[in-house]
């Protein structure tokens, strides 16, 4: 499993557009296998959650970037092992490690490339405090979560920072 943060320029930061992309089925209807919303104050409905998140982001007028786009890619040999419950658990592990447990998130699993992958749109603005949470050097955190999740769910261990470090 490999995770990647897709950096969003402040001028292109549009949470609603990203969340709509995450749930989009594509022209053949097979791109998005499943989608869900997490951390909503007014329920877990996907479209309502987008509106709620956009409203929360509007409350913070100081932050330049307000959306954290995470992509988690799985190896082809793990595809048969993964279940909807596992996808949700994996997303929750990443949210906890990155400090977004209390934040609104829109998630979706896509199969429009060679590898199954999950997109997560994290609202960086806290829904009650309206402060912006930024995790610096998050690649170390994400890599550690990847290795832990691979072990926990019996997935193929991918090359990562931990495997390539001098002490291993």
How would you sum up this structure, described in words?
The structure is a single chain. The protein has helices spanning 15-23, 46-59, 84-98, 138-153, 161-164, and strands at residues 2-6, 32-38, 67-73, 105-110, 117-123. It has 168 residues and is α+β, with helices and mostly antiparallel strands. The longest helix is centred in the C-terminal third of the chain and has 16 residues, at 138-153. The model has no long low-confidence stretch (mean pLDDT 91).
Name the features:
168 residues; alpha+beta; 5-stranded antiparallel beta sheet; 5 helices; 5 strands; globular
| Portion of residues within helices | 25-40%
Q: What percentage of amino acids are in beta strands?
A: 15-25%
Ranges where pLDDT stays below 50 over 5 or more residues in a row are none
Number of strands: 5
Strand order of the largest sheet: 1-3-5-4-2
Q: State Rg.
A: 16 Å
Q: Outline, from the CA principal axes? A: globular
Question: Please, what is the average pLDDT?
Answer: 91
- By secondary-structure content and strand pairing, the structural class works out as alpha+beta
Q: Helix segment count?
A: 5
- Biggest sheet architecture: 5 strands, antiparallel
H-E string: EHEHEHEEHH
Q: Tell me the span between the first and last alpha carbons.
A: 19 Å
Compile the SSE list and pairings:
Layout: E1 2-6, H1 15-23, E2 32-38, H2 46-59, E3 67-73, H3 84-98, E4 105-110, E5 117-123, H4 138-153, H5 161-164
Antiparallel strand pairs: 1-3, 2-4, 3-5, 4-5
Helix pairs in contact: 1-2, 3-4
């Amino acid at each position: 499993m490999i995770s990647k943060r897709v950096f969003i320029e402040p001028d292109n930061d549009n949470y609603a557009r990203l969340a709509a992309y995450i749930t989009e089925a594509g022209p053949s209807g097979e791109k998005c296998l499943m989608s869900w919303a997490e951390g909503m104050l007014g329920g877990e409905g996907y479209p309502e959650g987008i509106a709620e998140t956009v409203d929360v982001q509007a409350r913070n007028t100081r932050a330049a970037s307000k959306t954290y786009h995470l992509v988690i890619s799985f190896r082809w040999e793990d595809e048969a092992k993964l279940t909807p419950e596992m996808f949700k658990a994996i997303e929750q592990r990443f949210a906890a490690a990155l400090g977004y447990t209390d934040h609104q998130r829109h998630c979706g699993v896509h199969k429009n490339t060679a590898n199954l992958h999950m997109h997560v749109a994290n609202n960086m603005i806290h829904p009650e405090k309206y402060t912006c949470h930024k995790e610096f050097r998050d690649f170390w955190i994400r890599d550690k979560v990847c290795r832990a999740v691979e072990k926990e769910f019996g997935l193929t261990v991918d090359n990562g920072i931990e495997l390539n470090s001098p002490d291993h």
